[in-house]
Specification:
about 500 residues; mainly alpha
């Protein structure tokens, strides 16, 4: 995040109208993009909307005395924040490609079809992702591995993909949120000034009721599904998987290696990269027949294996059968599949960096603070600011750091314990990030699950309930911890 803007004699702070114009322009253009392009709005229209809105903000910045050199520096710094995510995205693309080729993902789908009851599938998907994410501290890794397999299983069972994606994201973000291994779970208390495990314990008061409610809804949705034809569909799909791949538990070794690295706190990029390389090795060892079917006509064994595996890293795999749905399920991945997501992330972070550098985001926060008189309204304002930051800056880390930095003194002044702020930051900044199509998390989930956030947003029950519950607690004064030095009432 860029440093707070320092005003001098040549610059002046933006008015509220100055700050409002680029944001409303973005909202109008994003809405128009969805209206005209539908699900394809994230493949170019949204990027153009973000860049045009950034241009409007820059013009206002010129009016207020800023120079292009300093604005450009802020943009470059904003883009630099995404480079870690870009490396992870590229490695995840390779991982999906090699895991499809190695039979790792097809094997997870194969056994999942036999184990998971369709009536309990949505709830089970949520629980499985929650356990994995809590163990490794990463919602992204969970979605790219277990999540991809669960989407495949849902396709095989002819279940709703938006509901499945909602269950995956609900579970993944619940587990990520309460895991001491998670980056955001460590970041929020660091910004707010609270202690990590006190922060986690305090979050349980909002996360447990939220995930319990979400699971109850997923159970109801599951039992309302028509699963009469699922047995035939499962048998057909498992037979087709056996025809294409050598299915066996040995194919799950790359998954176990990746989960082990994550639990050992190996950073995401090298861990996922190792997982992708393991997938390539496993493909050569156990899917040689498939590789030669995918190789160019007339290729010798060595050349065929090198070219197909190499292609899986950068362009994924494309398997052709007589079943179009199976082809879609077993094809994809590669670094190239992530390039549109990277494009979207860079445009979004550039827009957010300009607004922050020009003081426009702080203008909104100051206006909100002036109206937040009670503890409930302060917490509601924090939630709204975190969501707004996710919308505008498109990054969950900025949605934690920036509001945390801006509200910390106000929470202290009102005698509220730092865990109240750190919990609120996570209840809103972390949780809502995957629901926004142009946010780094929303774009990532779209790229790995292949379900538009605008489709799964209404089924990500945990992510929707948690911020609302945080606001309710604030107004009720329930579990709002105060500093021992103050005698103020809630």
């Amino acid at each position: 995040m860029s440093e707070p803007t320092r005003l001098d004699s040549t610059t002046r702070p933006p008015s509220f109208i100055d700050a409002f114009i680029p944001v409303i322009a973005l909202v109008i253009m994003l809405s128009a993009g969805v209206f005209y392009f539908g699900d394809n709005s994230s493949y170019g229209p949204n990027q153009i909307a973000l860049l045009l809105s950034m241009g409007i903000a820059i013009i206002i910045g010129f009016k207020n005395g800023y120079t292009w050199a300093e604005i450009e520096k802020a943009i470059v710094h904003g883009i630099s924040l995404s480079l870690g995510a870009v490396l992870i995205l590229l490695s995840v693309g390779s991982l999906i490609g090699t895991w499809l080729l190695s039979g790792t993902v097809p094997t997870m789908i194969y056994y999942g079809l036999q184990i998971l009851d369709p009536a309990w599938f949505y709830a089970a998907a949520c629980v499985i992702c929650g356990i994995v994410a809590m163990s490794i501290g990463s919602s992204w890794t969970t979605a790219a591995t277990i999540g991809v397999a669960l989407i495949g299983i849902a396709q095989g069972l002819d279940l709703s993909l938006p509901i499945t994606a909602g269950a995956i994201i609900s579970g993944a973000y619940f587990g990520d949120k309460i895991s001491p291994l998670s980056e955001t779970t460590n970041l929020a208390p660091a910004v707010a000034g609270s202690e990590l495990f006190a922060h986690i314990r305090y979050m349980l008061w909002t996360t447990i009721p939220s995930i319990s409610t979400a699971l109850f809804i997923f159970i109801i949705l599951g039992f309302n599904e028509d699963v009469s034809s699922s047995t035939v569909a499962i048998d057909t799909l498992t037979n087709q998987l056996e025809q294409q791949f050598n299915i066996g538990l040995i194919n799950l070794v790359p998954l176990l290696v990746l989960l082990g690295l994550a639990m050992k706190k190996v950073p995401a990029f090298p861990a996922v990269a190792v997982g992708a390389i393991m997938g390539a090795i496993w493909a050569v060892l156990f899917q040689s027949e498939l590789i030669m079917r995918l190789a160019e006509q007339g290729s010798d064994i060595f050349t065929g294996h090198v070219k197909v595996v190499w292609t899986a890293f950068f362009d994924g795999v494309s398997i052709k059968t007589n079943n179009a749905e199976l082809d879609k399920l077993l094809s994809g991945g590669g670094m190239s599949s992530m390039l549109n997501t990277i494009w979207l992330i860079m445009c979004a972070l550039s827009f957010g960096a300009v607004l922050e550098h020009l003081g426009m985001l702080r203008k909104f926060v100051n206006a909100i603070l002036a109206a937040a008189k009670s503890t409930g309204s302060l917490i509601a304002s924090t939630v709204a600011t975190c969501i707004g930051t996710n919308l505008i800056t498109a990054d969950q880390y900025m949605a934690i750091v920036m509001p945390g930095r801006m509200y910390k003194e106000e929470y202290e002044r009102r005698g509220l314990h730092p865990v109240v702020l750190s919990r609120t930051l996570e209840d809103s900044g972390t949780i809502t990030s995957p629901l926004i199509p142009w946010n780094t998390c929303g774009a990532y989930m779209y790229s790995v699950l292949l379900v538009n956030p605008l489709d799964y947003i209404f089924y990500s029950f945990f992510n929707l309930i948690n911020p609302v519950l945080a606001i309710i607690y604030g107004y009720l004064g329930f579990k709002i911890k105060r500093l021992v030095t103050t005698q103020k009432a809630s």
